[in-house]
Amino acid sequence: MRMRGNIALLLLMLLQCGGLPGIAVGRCVVFNFGDSNSDTGSLPAAFGFYLAEKLKISYLSPYMESSGSNFTSGVNFAVAGAAVTQTSAIPLGLDTQLNQFLHFKNRTRELRPHGAGSMIAESEFRDAVYAIDIGQNDITLAFLANLTLPDVERELAASASRVGDAVRALHVSGARKFWVYNTGPVGCLPQTLALRQKPGDELDAAGCLAAYNAAARSFNAELAAVCRRLAAEYGGNATVVCTDMYAIKYDLFANHSRYGFERPLMACCGHGGQPYNYANLKTCGQPTATACPEGERHIIWDGVHYTEDANAIVAGKILSGDFSSPRTKLKALCK
């Protein structure tokens, strides 16, 4: 059994590792925006600590961390539960995270002449990688509002457009390198299947909620169009890469036996047993929850987040560049 991992965090740390082959300059500075898929603060990622130790590099400190922060390699503004829209119960959505970044940059400028603060140089702000990994919670929120699928898709198109607005605002501030993740198959998450499935709901070939996955694909199509428009808008003045997390992650569920995973739709840590091992208010971390036996390979750790085993596969596919448009290896942005 492997604990929950954090795929975006792994990739952020790899970017910070100046000793990786092909990186011509000293180090990468990374600014990350998003939800729990890359939040290093309120939902600590065991996978990230493991990899940091192996790679001999440090965590990307969360912006809201009150002590022990080290912002010399960038900042993680991501917060668990965040959404692009402002309808989330978490008040730290993408717009707020963007404002936090602008405040951080201005404060860095004020403190730098005094030898204080992060000491990130203007050139490092310009050459940094700006990663955005958000949208999953927007899908869930749209369905919770009891909207029809066409209405859900209209809401998600607006969310994708706002991701583009965030990229434009960052570009105005001087950012030039953007790595945008689309969202995974929300309909395959044990939490979604256990709490949102109604009698008669259609399941796809992998046993996932078809409507939720259709919404995810709709959001991703809109986001891909946004990325293409931005790339055309900026020409050679900026790099905008969109990475297909949906294709990578859905393959784990659809072809789970190929990767050695058991019970692909069942959480490793939870309550209730088969088929999903997920029960509201009895989630992983509660006294009523238990973890799967050591040695079992699961895709999902706690009903929402992927396991270390799954993320190791996902990381390899992202780093290959095969799932990025335009086809780009993540470490190439550090050149």
TrEMBL record:
<dbReference type="Pfam" id="PF00657">
    <property type="entry name" value="Lipase_GDSL"/>
</dbReference>
<keyword id="KW-0732">Signal</keyword>
<comment type="similarity">
    <text>Belongs to the 'GDSL' lipolytic enzyme family.</text>
</comment>
<keyword id="KW-0325">Glycoprotein</keyword>
<feature type="signal peptide">
    <location>
        <begin position="1"/>
        <end position="19"/>
    </location>
</feature>
<dbReference type="InterPro" id="IPR035669">
    <property type="entry name" value="SGNH_plant_lipase-like"/>
</dbReference>
<protein>
    <recommendedName>
        <fullName>Esterase</fullName>
    </recommendedName>
</protein>
<keyword id="KW-0378">Hydrolase</keyword>
<dbReference type="InterPro" id="IPR001087">
    <property type="entry name" value="GDSL"/>
</dbReference>
<dbReference type="GO" id="GO:0016788">
    <property type="term" value="F:hydrolase activity, acting on ester bonds"/>
</dbReference>
<dbReference type="InterPro" id="IPR036514">
    <property type="entry name" value="SGNH_hydro_sf"/>
</dbReference>
